[in-house]
Amino acid sequence: MNQSAEPFRVSKSAAARISEILSGEPAKAALRVEVLAGGCNGFQYKFDLADGPSADDLVVKADQAMVLVDPTSLDLLAGAELDYVDSLMGSYFAVKNPIATTSCGCGTSFGID
Description:
This protein is α+β, with helices and mostly antiparallel strands.
């Protein structure tokens, strides 16, 4: 499968950071990425640690990291990539979402047409 056909991708930097976080949380097995209604543009990203996948989750394995996406959120994350940014302005997870037509300055909220 080529990368563009994948429903959701995880960058190497995000995979490394997720592995680092999970190594300090032995009771947790994965990072869950969700899209919720709200934020300043209609939708917002939510990141949580999870014990493991639900039966209908998309499970993305990248190196030693596991990322979970529920089917409802996946509809709004189709073709997106989870990245980890570490800069002078701060460190954070960022979603590069090709269907987002607007986003706010904080990067956690987006809108679609």
